[in-house]
Design brief:
This protein has 110 residues and is an all-alpha fold. 98% of the residues lie in helices and 0% in strands.
Length: 110
């Protein structure tokens, strides 16, 4: 009977030890899971920031490119207008010269 009692106490003690170990293992697993979740969240945030920075950089590059293109287009347009005005002045000058030569020729004929 005493042996049965010792055996029952021993089995009970082993069960308690098992439950304690299981609790420690579960606690460790939960802590590890929380740490992994925290790290994953940090990685996701860092990735999000990097993507946001990259998109912002691309937007800024786009705006700078568009501004440069517009500026170049404006300068080119301005230069073309100046060139056109010079050519129109040449045409007017040539026309005046032709008119003058025609008048002089007509005057010498008369």
């Amino acid at each position: 009977n005493v042996v049965k009692r010792y055996m029952a106490d021993f089995i009970h003690s082993m069960r308690m030890e098992k439950e304690g170990l299981m609790s420690d293992v579960q606690k460790g697993l939960l802590e590890e899971k929380a740490e992994i979740s925290r790290r994953l969240k940090g990685i996701a945030q860092e990735y999000g920031w990097k993507m946001e920075n990259k998109q912002m950089e691309q937007a800024m590059n786009y705006q700078m490119t568009i501004t440069s293109i517009r500026s170049d287009a404006f300068e080119t347009s301005k230069e073309l207008k100046q060139c056109l005005a010079k050519e129109q002045n040449k045409v007017v000058s040539l026309k005046n010269s032709i008119d003058k030569m025609t008048r002089e020729t007509n005057e010498t004929r008369n």
